[in-house]
What does this fold into?
Amino acid sequence: MVVLCCIAATTFWILNALNKDNYNTIVDYPLQWDYDQENYVAVKPLPRSVQIQISGNGWDLLRKYFNISGPPFPILLAKPGAKNYILTADIKRELSEFITPTYLENILEDSLLFQIDPIIQATLVPYLDTASYSLDEHIELDGQVRFVPDKLEIKGPSSLVEAYQGRFPVSLNEKDIKNNFSAKIALELEDKIAALVQINPSTIQVDFKVLTFLEGNKRLKIKKLNFPKNVRLSNEELIPLLIYLVEESKAKDLADMEFEAVLDYKKRNRADSTLEVSLLSAPSYLKDIRIDPPQVKLRYE
It folds into this structure.
């Protein structure tokens, strides 16, 4: 019985207290953003509420605190792309009238930040994302990559569309490619923008050819230039070796070809009496050329 009396007394006290005025509290008041959603889109989530300090009757404050029967405050953006903020001082009067009979003491935030962009369309040129694939050892692209179609249409918020700068990366997600490539590739959008951006078409045909290079080597004839009579090589029997990569289709052309290593005494290193071994000439289809040994030691008699 005593417990019931305590509960009844407490309830009566609370109800009596809530009927009084001049209470003060801070609440998160809900917001509703109104703008032309056919031609504009929010790039980032819009603020859902604003912190305000209010005073008034206890019941009114309780309803405001728990958002009971309280409609969100509408913010109308006639030109949503003109700026990315609203000063809360500019909406204080309207908000004060909106929440009556509760009294608005203060808005605790100076501004409400947002990013709403106009929706635009643009044409992008596809290109191969070099980070999305790799070629096998001694394999190179042969010529240009072919895309079908060679133009893409994109639609979305202006800031996201313009960030592409007119080009769209095509990801192959392939490793160690060793043969000519031909495949239809799905065009990928980053997860964070996929819901905001549309690209057409959603797939693209990618074709390119590759060159295969073979490892090879040839012994070099030595051609001495500007050598005094009293200067010799420390190893006169040395035969330098030319090591290279050659296009597979050109490998047979090297069968009867001879190469010369040039040793020009005028280019010697006086500090250690060494001389770089230079290749006289080489066809353009050779790559990664090196000579073993790269230099020789001189001997003075």
In short: The longest helix spans residues 2-18. The domain at 119-212 is CATH 2.170.120.40 (RNA Polymerase Alpha Subunit; Chain A, domain 2). The helical segments are 2-18, 58-65, 92-98, 158-162.
